[in-house]
Each structure stands twice: as structure tokens, then as C-alpha cells.
């Protein structure tokens, strides 16, 4: 596998070269990193430019943190381009919005290499990896998403130790922990955010209101109970029997918590107990239908789970109904769209199945599940 450093060469520049005037603080005894257009390319003088050196320095900062001259390269970059942080941050955010997560991550890593103590860059990396993980999970790439979650978690932990404290780090970490079903940490993060945030803008007030509602909801339903957390952990470790023991103990004193019924259904579905799982997911929906419920955070997931259960039970019409309900809530959820393709395939509507898979790939070209299903259809057509 190629490395971003494979297209990097280090070039010694004479002190009397006019080129060096572009880099205040230049030291002729230290070679400059030059980014070539492709790995293995032979270096030629025409490849040397201000841009190729700046790109080379950024590559070192992103991927070669142990480089003995990294402090020198940081100084050169800051002197040659004083607004590099602002411009690259804007570029990375734009790349992220356009779905170019890999390039956005590389830019943020370079910025972190430029200033390892910049708490906003650390938070930006956490947010980027968090968002990318969610996109992968929507595409059915759960293992890849789990790996990205671990990386996001590491960056969030670093952001939470920033001095002075960064309120937004706690706010966004709260959402991250909520999606991880780690409600104890989510509640702690939101409560810390509420203590730290002093802004009185309308935007800040709306965020504080939302953080307060989630923290209070967790407390009211005891979602930070150790039984609930251990049930989730056991499911993630594919130990469904132990998960069922824990969640049923939790439900003895919390029979009307929709999140608990969702965990119950999830564990049962992983055991192939389709009827029981379906009943649990239906109960989760019914309990989450109250106006003050946060069911919206899990509605599409429940619809998808119900669709899977219905599909396995042979009721393709009902499976499609649940998928369409989920799609109404999240029109670009590629996991839902791909599963609609599976239902179409099972009903013999191959053209419609292909259309669903192609739509999923238009939204997320990296959706390997949709790509494989489409390839299988084309191979047998």
C-alpha cells in the first residue's frame, strides 16, 4: 500500500539560490521536502517551486511527526505563509462538506502537525472522523465505521483536555457518546457544556436548550445505568446471551424506555429470532411516539431493523413499507436505499434493484455493499 510520503523527496538548495528568498529563515544545511506529482517520479529542477515545497512540508507535518527537522519546517511554513491555518481550515471544511473526507483529514492532520496544541483543529479532526463513521454506518460498513469511531474517540478525548476548556468539544462529544449508547459519558459531556458555555447568542441558547433536554432525558430514563451500558457492550462483542440478561434486568425497573426495547430487539435480531426482535422494535416505536421523546435519533435505525426482520420472515411488502418510512426521515441514507434494492431484487424487479443500488452509489461512491450488490446483479444479467 502506498504512503503519502512516497511522492516526497528532500532536496538540498544552495544558500545563494534566489529561490530561498521565498522562505524566511531558510537554512541551506537542511534539505527541503518537495512534493512530486506521483510516487517514484524522478526529481527534476522544474519540479521545485514554492507550492511543491509548501505541499512537501504539509505532508511531513501530517505523516512524518518524528522527522528530526519538523520544528524547522513548521517555522518555514508559518513565515512563508502566515495565514496558512485559516486558509487550510476553510479548505478542509469545504472538502468535508463535499464528501472528500480523505483529503479533509489529511489537511487537518497537517494543521495538527503545524500546531499540536490547537484545540480547534483537534476538535475538527474528531468531528470529521465522527461524521465519516456515521456515513459508513449508513452504508452498512459497520466494521469500518467502528474503526473510525475509535479514532474519533481518541481525538474527542484530546479535545476535552484543552486549556482553556472548549465548550463545543463537550457539546459534540455528548452527541458522539449518545450515538455510542454511552449515556453516562454523554450526560457528563452535556452537563459540562452547560457549565462552560457563557455565550448568550440565539445559536448558543438553542444549543444549550438541546443539551439540557438530552441530559435530562438520560437522567429521567436512567440510560446511564451500568446495566444498560453493559448490555450495549455485550452486543458489540457479539455476546448476545449476556446482553439479553443485562437488558432484561434493566427493563425490570424501566419497562417503558424505548431505547431498552431497541437494544432488546437488536440482540434478538442478531440471534436470528426474527419474530421476537420485530415485536421488540415495534414496542420501541410505540414507546417513543410521545412528543417529548428523542425517538428521532433512532427512528430510521428502528425502521431498518424492522425491515430486516420482515424480510427474513418473508414479508417483503411490509419490509418495503418500513424502508420507505425510514427513507422519508433520511432521504440519503444509503443503507436504507440499498436494502430497498435487496427487496426489489427478491421480488424479481431487477431494473428497480439496479436503480436503487446506483442511487446509493451516487450518494456515496465508497458504498462497498451497494457496489457489490450491483456487480452481482450485472454479472448474472
Structure description:
With 381 residues, the protein is mainly alpha-helical. It has a domain at 4-80. It has helices at 50-63, 70-80, 84-97, 101-114, 119-138, 142-159, 167-179, 183-196, 202-221, 226-236, 240-253, 258-270, 274-287, 299-312, 316-329, 334-346, 350-363, 368-380, and strands spanning 8-11, 32-35. The longest helix is centred in the middle third of the chain and has 20 residues, at 119-138.
Keyphrases for this structure?
single chain, 381 residues, mainly alpha, globular
Write the layout of secondary structure elements.
Layout (H helix, E strand, L loop, with lengths): L7 E4 L20 E4 L14 H14 L6 H11 L3 H14 L3 H14 L4 H20 L3 H18 L7 H13 L3 H14 L5 H20 L4 H11 L3 H14 L4 H13 L3 H14 L11 H14 L3 H14 L4 H13 L3 H14 L4 H13 L1
Antiparallel strand pairs: 1-2
Amino acid at each position: 500500500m502506498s504512503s503519502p510520503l512516497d511522492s516526497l523527496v528532500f532536496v538540498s538548495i544552495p544558500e545563494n539560490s534566489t529561490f530561498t528568498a521565498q522562505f524566511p529563515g531558510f537554512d541551506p544545511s537542511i534539505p527541503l521536502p518537495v512534493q512530486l506529482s506521483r510516487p517514484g517520479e524522478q526529481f527534476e529542477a522544474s519540479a521545485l517551486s514554492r507550492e511543491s515545497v509548501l505541499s512537501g512540508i504539509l505532508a511531513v507535518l501530517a505523516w512524518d511527526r518524528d522527522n528530526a527537522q519538523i520544528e524547522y519546517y513548521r517555522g518555514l511554513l508559518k513565515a512563508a505563509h502566515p495565514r496558512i491555518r485559516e486558509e487550510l481550515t476553510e479548505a478542509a471544511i469545504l472538502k468535508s462538506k463535499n464528501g472528500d473526507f480523505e483529503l479533509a483529514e489529511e489537511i487537518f492532520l497537517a494543521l495538527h502537525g503545524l500546531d499540536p496544541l490547537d484545540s480547534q483543529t483537534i476538535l475538527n479532526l474528531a468531528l470529521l472522523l465522527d461524521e465519516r463513521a456515521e456515513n459508513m454506518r449508513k452504508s452498512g460498513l459497520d466494521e469500518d465505521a467502528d474503526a473510525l469511531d475509535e479514532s474519533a474517540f481518541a481525538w474527542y478525548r484530546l479535545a476535552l483536555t484543552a486549556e482553556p476548556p472548549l465548550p463545543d468539544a463537550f457539546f459534540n462529544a455528548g452527541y458522539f457518546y449518545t450515538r455510542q449508547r454511552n449515556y453516562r459519558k454523554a450526560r457528563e459531556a452535556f452537563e459540562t457544556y452547560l457549565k462552560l458555555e457563557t455565550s448568550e447568542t440565539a445559536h448558543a441558547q438553542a444549543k444549550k436548550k438541546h443539551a439540557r433536554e438530552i441530559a435530562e432525558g438520560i437522567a429521567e430514563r436512567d440510560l446511564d445505568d451500568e446495566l444498560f451500558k453493559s448490555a450495549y457492550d455485550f452486543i458489540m462483542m457479539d455476546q448476545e446471551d449476556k446482553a439479553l440478561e443485562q437488558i432484561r434486568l434493566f427493563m425490570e425497573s424501566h419497562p417503558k424506555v424505548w431505547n431498552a426495547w431497541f437494544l432488546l430487539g437488536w440482540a434478538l435480531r442478531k440471534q436470528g429470532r426474527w419474530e421476537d426482535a420485530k415485536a421488540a422494535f415495534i414496542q420501541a416505536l410505540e414507546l417513543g411516539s410521545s412528543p417529548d421523546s428523542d425517538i428521532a435519533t433512532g427512528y430510521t435505525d428502528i425502521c431498518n431493523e424492522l425491515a430486516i426482520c420482515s424480510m427474513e420472515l418473508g414479508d417483503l411488502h411490509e419490509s418495503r413499507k418500513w424502508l420507505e418510512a425510514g427513507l422519508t426521515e433520511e432521504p440519503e441514507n444509503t443503507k436504507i436505499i440499498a436494502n430497498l434494492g435487496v427487496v426489489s431484487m427478491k421480488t424479481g424487479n431487477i431494473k428497480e434493484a439496479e436503480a436503487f443500488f446506483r442511487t446509493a452509489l451516487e450518494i456515496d461512491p465508497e458504498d462497498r455493499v451497494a457496489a457489490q450488490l450491483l456487480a452481482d446483479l450485472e454479472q448474472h444479467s
